[in-house]
Amino acid sequence: MSESISRRNLLIGAGALAAGAGVMASTVHNHDMGSESLIDAAFDCLKQGQACVDHCLEEFKTGDTSLAACADMVQEMLAVCNATAQFASFKSQHLKALATVCAEVCKDCEKECNKHADTHTSCKACADACNICIKECQKIA
User: Fold this and answer.
1) pLDDT at 101
2) If 48 and its partner were Cys, which of 30, 54, 76, 126 is the partner (CB 3.0–4.6 Å)?
3) CATH number of 2-140: 2.40.170.20, 1.20.1270.360, 1.20.1250.20, 3.30.70.260?
4) Rounded CA gap, 72 and 75, in Å?
């Protein structure tokens, strides 16, 4: 079981790294401060969210599944924040619509992570990152 979890972590991390590298490469010429702020916030969600998922997986290894809903919600947030960062980097005409969805998903993630924030620092960090991302998404949406 731990081998498949390690593979899963590797795949998730590799995907986030590849996506991040693509976005970072395309943001070099981006001078739109609103988009840059949103990209930064989305990347922070990706960073904090990945740490949260990693923590959840470690808890699962001990038999504690109390963070299952948190891990599921964070996975959704990771997907939408990755897409939002990419859409912002190439100034997609659909960014406004995606930012609206991203804000809603981040609200759900923040709410779920806050349930565990008092006892799990990675959940608190993820919730805080989501809060910032929500604000940046709302500026665009």
Assistant:
1) 98
2) 126
3) 1.20.1270.360
4) 5
36: which residues sit within 8 A by CB, 6+ positions away?
A: 27, 30
Q: Cα separation of 5 and 94, whole Å?
A: 35
Summarize pLDDT for 43-68 with one digit per residue, the tens: 999 999 999 999 999 999 999 999 99
Rounded distance between C-alpha atoms, residue 126 and residue 110, angstroms: 7
Element (H, E) at 83: helix 68-89
Comparing CA positions, the residue from 73, 62, 85 lying closest to residue 116 is: 73
Q: Dihedral through CA 60, CA 62, CA 66, CA 71, nearest 10?
A: -20
What is the rounded CA–CA span in Å between residue 40 and residue 63?
35
What contacts 22, CB < 8 A, 6 or more positions away?
A: 86
56, 109 Cβ separation under 8 angstroms: no
**What digits encode the pLDDT tens for the residues 68-111?**
999 999 999 999 999 999 999 999 999 999 999 999 999 999 99
